[in-house]
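Sorry to interrupt, but I need a hand with the structure work. Could you add the entry underneath, on a fresh line?
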Amino acid sequence: MQRIKLLSSDLINKIAAGEVIERPSSVVKELVENAIDAGARSIEIVLEGGGKKLIEVSDDGSGMSHADALLSVERHATSKIRNFDDLSSISTLGFRGEALPSIASVSSFTITTWDGIEEHGISIHTDPIAAVVSKPAARDRGTTIRVAELFENVPARRKFLKSADAEFRAIVTVVSSYALPSPDRAFRLEHNGRTVLDLPRAESGRHRVEQLLGSDVAPHLSPIELSIAGCNAAGFVTRGVRFGSRRNQYFFVNGRLVRDRVLTHAATRACEAFDFDGHPGIVLFLGMNPESVDVNVHPAKTEVRFRDSGAVHVLVEQSIKAALGGAEEGARLLTSHVAAVHDSPDSSTSHGLDFQEQLPGASLSYAAETAIRRESIYEVAPLFQQRPLVQPPREDADLGPASIGDLQGRVIGQYRMSYILCDVPGGLRLVDQHVAHERVLYDRFERLASIGGGAMQHLLTPYIHDAGAAEGAVLESQLTELRNVGFEIERFSGRSFAITAVPSELRVKNLAGFFAKLVDAALEERGSHLTHLREKMLASIACQAAIKVHRPLGGEEMSLLLGDLLASSNPYACPHGRPVIVDIRHLDIEKHFHRK
């Protein structure tokens, strides 16, 4: 009995689709790459439902003849390579000839194209259950590809797609990334009938970086320029400006966006030489002989292998260090930047100061905060109006002695003004005061958000957040969740957003710095449900509002905090997963003194 059989072409295409097309952003990536290879000067992307319902990419590139258009939906039909040797010197973004047939095998697929030479264009439609249909069509020179109901015929794949919002954010990242090395191209992205990203042709590479990262970074962009052994590094890095994540770091090899450990490790090493927190924005273009890099490593073409990875590592690390100006210069820049923040007459609109830094005497004690909360009045601050809490804590709460779980104990002191010490029957208990308060606040914020938003404090002067094009496109989709967690925020003009109120617990010294970190948390969220995004935002707010380490607390304050912690949803871990409680057994203590 013959057990080995040839697979059908339909099944082969679906297997290939699983390798090349993971999600809607993968489709957009492949189609944008094709448009760039075709010499397009303008690329428009239309989405519905985060790309799950519809993706349409139009360009004004070279277009295709009738014969080429019919071949384009066949597997391994490509104009990019002719023989095996061509694989060692690939200079185009696409080359395998797998993308279009793979996409067509898992969607309702239509391609309309005209090369400007033949009498008219051609439209080709195919879907997984119907034969290919072609007919004459009218359009300007270029190509339009329409992909509807992605993975509709592969339910096992479709159910693993994330929410429409999460898929939309991924597509914004892809389009933004391909706009960076193409300042001479215009990009436009429309989602559910609304233009969310509009990038006209830029005057220069620097101007395109400013378009995407925001005008705030413009004065801080330092050029990267270095060549070693025939390999060239160019681009920009932000000096004196840091972000809460690496989302603004982009690496390109011969114009191709890549994810590579050699490049990210080299960049990290370069930034570690600078004595401040956060991650700089990096847009790095590596140019090298195509024979020095293998792009045929992964079907998605996002991974590469360098012939001399050591030389590439040295080039990237040294070029970024040189652009940052060396460790001493970087530290000087940050010091002067922080000084400017402290000297500013309105520090709430300053940039660059770590939000966790507090001015001396600016914070209330925990007991005072608790007492104020119980009176439904918040701290008087020049920038804010007073607003009451929705639900004040119970008046009859019997805090009694310190207690966590089944163990009763008593507070005996504070260690290094950071940890509360409790004498419990099993030994000695240490409670991290910052993460304990963080857990308490998070639970309170979560309850308020679930009933439509917590108490707000209104700013006397609105804060205007100037977002980059990519950030602005995604941020607008998160406005509802930002309002749910206590922000009043609206689009102001262009890519700017006006914040007129913030959660009541925030005593803002640097709203710009904190909001930037909050946006980082929102844009980095890859979960498939809005609940994940809300949790991440609430955790960030709770972390900022919680009492800090190295702050003295009185006995009553410590008892109040432990009582609140006991009533929380999880006394043993903060929202970020850090431990709140550490127990040292009495038996182990006695062993140290040779009593056992």
Notes: Residues 329-364, 372-407 have pLDDT under 50 and may be disordered. The two ends are 74 Å apart (CA to CA). The chain has 18 helices and 24 strands. The longest helix spans residues 326-343.
